[in-house]
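so im writing up the methods section and need the Abasic site processing protein record in one place, dumping it here so i stop losing it
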Amino acid sequence: MCGRYASFRDAQDIADDLAVADIADDARLLPPSWNVAPTDPVRIVVERPQRIDGRNTGEITRSLRLARWGLVPSWAKDPGIGARMINARSETLLDKSAFAKPLGVRRCLLPADGYYEWRKLTLPDGAPARAGSTSKVPKQPYWIHPAEGGVAALAGLYEFWRDRSKADDDPDRWLVSATVITTAASKDLERIHDRMPVILPADAWDAWLDPAVGAEEAMSIVGGPQVGMATRPVGDAVGSVQNNRPSLIEPDPDPRDPDVVAVGGP
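--- predicted struct ---
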């Protein structure tokens, strides 16, 4: 799964990298984060018609907008369900009602600089195993990022949820939320975790964002080539959402992983 990532580059740099024509004010002002966590505000890249006189009737424009991480289906009774929908498994996108419709009409990219994953290690010799508990199993956090540099464009879905307790003229009556699509880990990355986010190469961005592309074609994009990633063991500080600083992605000087995973670069 993808439960933490980092997005610290400037909004204009993201716009330049992903050919974004319009940046929403709240997306421009979102501060950099080295520890993005579920339910945090995140930037998403979408293609939607421009609004004219309150209607989506204008030219389709690629824009950078703000969403909450954790998809809230339009039919949900309350937005709390979003905390359980930060990821969408690619294998069940067409089967789950929360994801099937947005797969066809509301796809997005979540620009990131990389993401974090934790590798479960074996218990030290002589350590007692506790039945039904993984609290004592040591883990090594890893910073996973594009091997060739540049932005990591995470394939995602987004949705609109209407808060019917708010008035029609309340600007907060609509919640925009998003989820990251995940897939089975590659042969190299599966040594760290069995799942990974779908990170699309630049030549797949246009088709993924194109609202004219249907769900079946979108599924073929999800199953296509992905960006090559590099890994780096990092310190335990990333495990707390209270920590948010550039040093989170610096190499762990003394990793507890006896078989440090190095994929695609240093």
